[in-house]
Amino acid sequence: SFPHVAHLHSNSLSFSFDFFHCVFGDEQHLSTQMPYVKFILPTAPTQPVTMNMGMPMPSWYDIVGLDERSNEKCAGIEESRKTLVSILAKEHETTKLPYSRMALAGFSQGGALSIFTGMQMEKVDQKLAGILVMSGYLAGFGQFKITPGLEDTPVLHCHGMSDPMVPFGMAEKSRDKAIEKGATDYKLEGYAGLQHSVCPQEIADAAQFLSRILPPDDSCKIQLKDPSEMSVKELKEAIRKAGLGSKAVGLMEKAEFVKLVKDHREGKC
Description:
By secondary structure, the chain is α/β, with parallel strands linked by helices. It is built from 9 helices and 10 strands. The protein has helices spanning 17-24, 28-33, 77-95, 109-118, 168-180, 200-213, 232-241, 245-248, 254-265; strands at 8-9, 11-15, 37-40, 46-48, 56-58, 102-107, 130-134, 155-160, 186-191, 222-223. It has a 6-stranded parallel sheet with strand order 3-2-6-7-8-9, sandwiched between helices. Helix 3 (77-95) packs across helix 4 and helix 7 runs parallel beside helix 9. The protein is globular and about 60 Å long.
């Protein structure tokens, strides 16, 4: 959940769950800088992973190894791509927000899935505003094909130059492979001494990139439903998504739920 989602949204931004966990920690970081953006944090399914001795763990696809040959197939990545596509499609269908006002971002495996999904949207009119990758790589490149018309989708790939898990050389090869496949706006930024983590400069670069590809745009504002017109079920769902569960403890009447949602949207809680 994201605690400071604005009342009017002109953008949607889908992150893998591990992105915020590993990168920003405090989820309010970006919401404060970009209050007009709706953040969606999907969580990877739990499944057996070969590199984890076959034991189940949250993972978007199976990881056999981190060398080029192991990354050719990535069993399960196509199913996860479809999951992200369905999330974006639902956002588009329910809010009428154009895909050009949506972006994907992820850390490590989430970043790999972001590239794999964002550059392979099914139609040119589904071209995203951009893709942010942090400590990620181009997975499943044996089946990766950029959809015609999406070659110039902006990609910022941030990567630690001392990363022992996903070596910087792999990030360079990912960039080169993407360009070889047709990408024309793929920027790789390296950070000296940084391992499989983040640093203040990287976070600043990421925020600047997101602000550039998703600037405020009043023409795309989406009016949220008035809380007084929402059912109790809708109110409870809004409260859950806003991370207000603790503030809703003890509330019984619909009017109380309405007030809580209104106060949240007005920044009073």
